[in-house]
Amino acid sequence: MHKSKTMHELSIVMGILEIARKEAAMAGAASIDEIELDIGALSTVDMDAFDFAWNQGVKGTLLAGAQRKVNRIEGRARCMDCNIEFSIREIFEPCPACGEHFIDIVKGKELRVKSLVVEEGLAH
User: Fold this and answer.
1) What's the pLDDT tens digit per position in 6-35?
2) Residue 10 included in any domain
3) Engineered SS bond to 76: which of 91, 107, 114, 116, CB 3.0-4.6 Å?
4) Residue 32 lies in a domain
5) Which residues, 6+ apart, have CB-to-CB distance to 33 below 8 Å?
6) How many domains does the chain have?
7) Helix 47-57 to helix 3-27 angle, to the nearest 10 degrees?
8) Does residue 63 contact residue 117 with C-beta atoms inside 8 Å?
9) pTM score, two decimals?
């Protein structure tokens, strides 16, 4: 696995950990039971590197025992010329109807914490 790719995903995991820590603290949670993430197919996240970074990054944190759910969001774009909406796997794909490359990404670049399930109780 390429080191810079893993470092990129590790920084994403660290950002998720910070969000989870803040949300758990605001809820007065003792632990996090589940985290749900939306990760778009067109985001810059390599899922193999993300899984590796996740396993390393959550050790000893509130997310160590949490169930992780990942929703992979399909890439969708709209042609700016003929206005058709279509599925895409790569950001620079042309419109399948007219071949134009001037497209607007509608869906698939997401990278967010969708939900947390926390255990009530005072955090230590």
Assistant:
1) 788 999 999 999 999 999 999 898 889 999
2) yes
3) 107
4) yes
5) 65, 66, 67, 117, 118, 119
6) 1
7) 50
8) no
9) 0.83
